[in-house]
Amino acid sequence: MPETLKETSADASAPIAAVPAPTAEVAKARSLWTDAWYDLRRSPLFVVSAVLIIFLLVMAIFPGLFTGADPRYADLAHHYLQRPKWGHFFQADWFGYDIQGRSIYARVVYGARASITVAVVVTALVTILGTVVGMLAGYFGGWIDTILSRVTDIFFGVPFILGAMVVLTSFEERHIWVVILALAFLGWTQIARVARGSVMTIKQADYVMAAKALGASTTRILLKHIMPNAIAPVIVVATIALGGYISAEATLSFLGIGLAEPTVSWGVDISSGQEQLRNAAYVLIIPSVMVSITVLAFIMLGDAVRNALDPKLR
């Protein structure tokens, strides 16, 4: 046998060396929400706003942890011209007293409950209503889109505060649920527009077309395929709008059309504090600062969520 054939035969009979497996681990693909949460945890804007919001929520739910004073207890021996005791931290006289001798600090603590409750419930209602209207208009199109879009335009053309004033003046008693329904009745239009535009883009995606081709029902397509992918911009708008509803409630209460006594609210205290603006400005300034801080916290949270969910801003 020729030498070349012997070498070839020897090589063929030699054992084949195993190919070493790659040592580098393949990174797992992350979803949009996982990736967004990864970015949010590293965002100073999100951390600061989240800490503020958690603090305000705890204060609204458990006001007794912050003060033992009664926000409705009036003692005329404590006059608003008696300056606050800035060194008496967390005491009833820390921020002084209003014209009726009630503790401003206690009213600030307990006032968070009404203001935040209005904002959270209104945001939940307008998000649900606006998302449903926007999804139906964007998915079905045609005459359904035309009717829902024109209804949205009608509500959108009504000035928000002016419309709320008109609605609230028709009620003799304006308790907290009346204010919530009035604000929700007029505040869903922006979210409806955002949801409609998002659904119109997503319904052209391949996975939606595939679901239709496989015979999936309309309800399943909307709930399982479109809504999870269209909800991101809605969440951003709703988070930012939540702060706006707090300022709207304070504005209406300041004008004497929103919440009223005996409800403890920042807007009610701002309204009553305007009479002492010259002699004791802190009666007006302190609840106003609380409104500003709360609105700023939710706006900051909305900006952080938008930056995390929008791929163009990465």
Structural class: mainly alpha
Amino-to-carboxy terminus distance:
69 Å
Instruction: Please report which band the strand proportion falls in: under 5%, 5-15%, 15-25%, 25-35%, 35-45% or over 45%.
Output: under 5%
Radius of gyration: 29 Å
Low-confidence stretches: 1-19, 21-27
Helix content: 55-70%
What is the overall shape?
elongated
Strand segment tally: 0
Number of helices: 12
Largest sheet, if any?
none
Order of helices and strands: HHHHHHHHHHHH
Mean pLDDT across the residues is: 83
Structure description:
It is a single chain. This protein has 314 residues and is mainly α. Helices cover 65% and strands 0% of the residues.
Short description:
65% of the residues lie in helices and 0% in strands. With 314 residues, the chain is mostly helical.
Distinctive features:
314 residues; mainly alpha; 12 helices
Strand and helix map with partners:
Layout: H1 3-13, H2 32-40, H3 44-61, H4 104-140, H5 142-156, H6 160-168, H7 176-186, H8 189-202, H9 206-213, H10 218-254, H11 266-273, H12 282-309
